[in-house]
Amino acid sequence: MKRNVMMTVALLIFFSLASTASAKVNLKFFYPVGVAGPLVKVINGMVAEFEKENPGIDVEPVYAGNYNQTMQKVQTAVLGGNPPDIAVVEISELFSLLAMDALIPLDEYIEQEGGEKFLADFYPGFLGNAYGRDGKIYGFPFQRSTPILYWNKDMFAAAGDKLKAAGLDPNRPPDNWDELVEYAKILTIREGNQTKQYGLIIPGGWNDWIFEAFSRQNGSQLIKEDGLTVTFNSPENLEALRLWVNLMQELKVCPVLRPWNITPDDFIGGVTAMMYYSTGGMAKIRKTAEFNWGAAFQPKRKNYGTPVGGGDFHIFKGIPKENQDAAWKFAKFMTTPEMAGHWSIESGYVAVNKAAYDRADMKAFLEKFPQMTVARDQLDYAYPKMMAVNYQLIRNAMTTNLDAALEGKKTPEEALADAHKLMEEAIKGQ
Amino acid sequence: MEEKKYEVVLKIFMLQIGAVLMILPFVWLISTALKSPSEVFTQSLSLIPEKFMWTNFVDIMDQAPFWLYMGNTIIVCVGILVIQLLLVIPAAYAFARLDFPGKDVLFLLFVIQIMLPLESIIIPNYLITKKLGLLNTRTGLILPFVASGFGTFMLRQTFKQIPASLEDAALMDGAGHIRFIWHVIIPLSRPTIVTFSMISIATHWNDYFWPLIITDVDRVRTLTIGLGMFVQQESGSDWSLLMAATLFVCSPIIAFFLATQRTFIKNFLTSGIKG
Amino acid sequence: MREKLEQYQAYLFLIPGLFFLLLFTYLPILWSTWLSFNRWNLLSPKPKFVGMENFVNLWHHDVFWLVMKNSFIFVTVSIFPTMFLALVFAILIDERMKGRVYYIYSFFYPTLIPMAAAAMLWVYIYSPNLGILNVLLAELGFPKLGWLGSSDTSLWALIIMTFWKNLGFFMLIYLSGLQNVSRELYEAAYMDGAGWWKRHVAITFPLVGPTSLFVLVTAIILTFRVFDQIHLMTEGGPGNSSNVIVYYIYENGFKFFDWGKATSLTTILVLILLTLTLIIFGIFGKRITYSAD
What we know:
Number of domains of chain B: 2
Helix content of chain B: over 70%
CATH class of the largest domain in chain B: Mainly Alpha
CATH superfamily of the largest domain in chain A: Periplasmic binding protein-like II
Distance between the termini of chain B: 29 Å
Order of helices and strands of chain B: HHHHHHHHHHHHHHH
Largest sheet of chain B: none
CATH superfamily of the largest domain in chain B: MetI-like
CATH topology of the largest domain in chain B: MetI-like fold
Oligomer: heterotrimer
CATH architecture of the largest domain in chain A: 3-Layer(aba) Sandwich
CATH topology of the largest domain in chain A: D-Maltodextrin-Binding Protein, domain 2
Number of strands of chain B: 0
Number of strands of chain A: 12
CATH class of the largest domain in chain A: Alpha Beta
Number of domains of chain A: 2
Strand order of the largest sheet of chain A: 2-1-3-11-4
Number of helices of chain B: 15
């Protein structure tokens, strides 16, 4: 009898120990795919590697749509008391998440890794959108980009004579706004009332990001770094919008409001000679374009300039400490030189970890595809992306008014003024 | 009554044009689903693909767990239908053949529901579902739809038409209402019940808005949401895969209706939906 | 005594249905109406009673009126052509015995497929370069259209697609209703020398009155609640040109997290739907509740 009791007790102890030992940490990871390409597979692959190296942690990657949808899902989850453990959202949304008190600061984790020295491994341009107003760091860069100019070298060569006659070099893309207009005019081919080839496509959808680039190139900005002061309606921005509207409405070298995610197709399909797009679309172009193509800095006005783009990792409040620790491990894993390099190659995003570019596989890759270095090099001229609370509402104000101006429904002056007013209201919370 | 020759020709012509215009998009869908991505890029009108890429269907499975989504959708649709029938048949019977105070008012409550579909009151329904802890559950996908005013209305019509003599006979035999429903009413109302069931399945197979709001994990995702997200993932660019996925999502319901066409047409045309 | 028993049984039969009806239809409406008098958004995380503030703000908000305009255009432009053509095709099919199933299915299958699938298909059809419509236009020498990408055409593009989706459903309902029209009436009219059109105007149109009512009501509801295609095809744009009321509610609730605004919009929509109900029931009321007699 006593032996039976002993056995039972032993078994109970054994099972309870076994169950705690095998108690895995489960992380729910929300992430977006914001550019063309089957990146869900790549993420799943990276997650599988992480789980292999960390048998005590299970990560459930939840593909949540594009940047907007992912942010909506995250917000809904947080408001519903059921936050994810770790998520990637578009960098402009940081202040909204902070206003919801949804995130934990990462300073402690970074200190443990070596503080400033650790951060120095990463491109400073990508850390600009990670800090809250209290000076603590709440984000960690993952899929980062800048918008760049893609150009079809074959089409440029085909128009070689006309370009040279206009004093332009067919072996390089335009370097400033005036050249952009001139190149685009020559590279647009019309037959009757069909445009067989556009000189340039500037897509809609993320036209707030594109517009921020124009703004920076002209020495202005859209919202100040404090996230509270709107500078949308400035003379420099007016000049930028006029240029953009001119390209679409008067010169018709650029189609009006092409959707964001089919623009790379247009480029690949030979519909346009030039394209403004994120570097994140480069993998698709690299794999399917059947012509010579190049990438370059976006043309300057007063200076080269773009906002950065993409999404950072954020770790959430309201989850157990062990989950937060595991989430940090995951974020660290995904941004090692090896993983960051792999992600960059598979997507076209810039590798956030500088050391990634010293790796042999990356070097070999860049020999074949030097275009991948453009976005990284443009970082020298890049600025943090604008951020504000209630960014979804602000984005909506910007895009609807920019759309209206680009379609010719409002004058640039009206569009800027209307958007400016709505943005200020959104920030004040009306 | 004779139809003039030219009248016949004209009518058939109009019908054919109409049918062709309606089918054309679907033909285009199938055609694209079988093309290779590079062929899709050429701006051509050719309907027959150069190479039949049956592998497209395998590829889409690679990108997203469509079989899982289909399983979820089936569970949800069947769940909705079963509970609907359990609720609606007794209710319709009560309204059709029983007398009780407040009958008209209560019936009005059911009928008004037809005018207030879930979409119009999605915000409060979301809040209630959240409070009940049913977010991200298949139960949450099922319950809001089970009280069908439309079904109650339809079945009440049919139940009313069952002759009173049958009821008297059953009562004389000592059968209660439940027995009567099971043995007499339901068998005699089969056409309407079948029609309603098919409408219910077709409707809820296609639910999109509600699952969009209350689910965000693959585990409970339904086909329509899966398709919508797949589109975003492929960023509207790989049309051949996209159309293959769309075709996949459409096929079960079309296959189901084709297989049951005789039943469906017969029942629908005799179920007395005439107002 | 028997009567009382029967009454209790009746209530028993109704209770499950009523329970869910209250839980997922009427209770939400009441709660939502209460919330519409509160301010509740990202910057005011707890509902705060503010009376009519939400409604006043909506009244002064351009986008609100644009959305209402779009919704009404959508509903009115969709319904009448759809109903008319549905009836015409139903009549045409009714008169054919051969090939009937083929015709029925070719009109009806779009109703069966998920709106999400139809949306995908039509995004492709409307695609600026690869879509069959623009390719056709170019072949015929016409300029390509913006379709979903232009604020002039986006709403119409959606209306066309919705028409394609719903036509077969209404046609089928009319077809069912036509079964009850006696052939002898047509014979008599034919004898009197009435042509095809005249016969149907005089006989069919009036006799399918009740069916038309059913179709009208269903059509109104179906078009007021459009969401899926907006969400998947245009997201209300460009510039809110294709934004309709249910999508606007969704935007405010789940994109901008302004629950006060979203619930006040819900209240307005419910009021509209109830008003329509009243009107329709008022004119045709008795026929609906007692129509089976």
